[in-house]
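Researcher: Re-running this chain for the archive, since the previous output was lost when a drive failed. Same request as before.
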Amino acid sequence: MLGEYRIEGRRAAEISASVERGIGAGHLAPGQPLPPLRELAQELGVNPNTVAAAYRALRDRGVIETAGRRGSRVRARPSSTPRGSIGVEAPPGVREVSDGDPDPALLPPLGDALAAAARDHAARPGRYGDAAVLPELARLARAGLDADGVPAGPVAVTSGSLDAIERVLAAHLRPGDAVAVEDPGWGALLDLVPALGLRPLPMALDDDGPLPGELERALRAGARAVVITDRAQNPTGAAVGEARARELRAVLAAYPRVLLVEDDHGHRIVDLPLHPLAGITDHWALIRSTAKAYGPDLRLAVLTGDDVTVDRVTGRQRLGPGWVSRLLQRAVVELWKTDAVDTRHVARAYAERRDALVRALAERGVSAHGRSGMNVWVPVAEETGAVARLLRAGWAVAPGARFRLAAGPGVRLTVSAMTATEIEAVADAVADAAGAAPARSYG
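Model: Regenerated structure tokens:
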């Protein structure tokens, strides 16, 4: 079964380490079956419970997967392999439209805000015992959440959206629990879930977000948590509209013990209204990041939620990093107070580019999606070939494999810095490369 590679060890930790070494060295290939539990125990001369514990640890770390009577096998893509590594390297002369970064021209200068934070620090140096969240930041964040109809709740600060999602999931779930995730969805989240020892359950979506029937199916299948992107969904640009929000709330109402996590990373770059789902379930969190509006290196997100969830997140945070730099928090306060980002202007700029690309593709008979944010999702008949043909045509796009579990093939294009001339050119190239993909794109 394993060829020449021999799993070794007498203790569970030694056996699991031996399997991981085999995977890392390429001796155990993705998808390769592992020996049945009792067979390996007999070969190693150990109790079957020892092998069971080793396999359980490997499964919890996202290294292997177990499919009942079909046994255990190496995951097709172990959680230690980031989806960001799935891509193409753009050679000289090839236009990069795969990165997902905001347009630098639409980011505000940070000099004044950082200088103000430095002056405040000089006057009142931070100390270990100070509050983890600046009261002024909490007040401004809470005012914005209130204006968008987000239920009342305390405010915490984390180092970005993914940090917040990880902390919220870890506060409530245990290895082996299932999490409903959008498919296609944010590649980093699809990496995070198995890395935490959790099982992703894909939900198909359309331009209005997750389909209610898909959410219902995932919850019936045992999902203990669900993660939904409110606006600027990555990679499809979906945004949860008012009618869809009503339908999703109706589904969630029947599952009050499910943990609901909402990611509103599109805050301040999208002018579509927020339709929060928060408050329907007993435990919930809504997260807003500064990365898209102010720059990826401003590593700060605010989250609110029910008292238990936020208390667990902040309690565990105190035992690790303690808090997010109050210098960064002060800089964000200054950016918010001075309205450094003109939301309407930024949203309009991205919308004009997205709409122009989607329209140009439609004129060429290609279905594409991009309701909000800075990305456009294009279904293709065959992904690897489409990416290669686009690369030869001078365009480096993001392969859909970064973002998919069960969804059909596609490619993602970031429109952030595209010019009108480039939009027409890339539309021609995509039309030549896409092939005859089905109009139904998401799931």
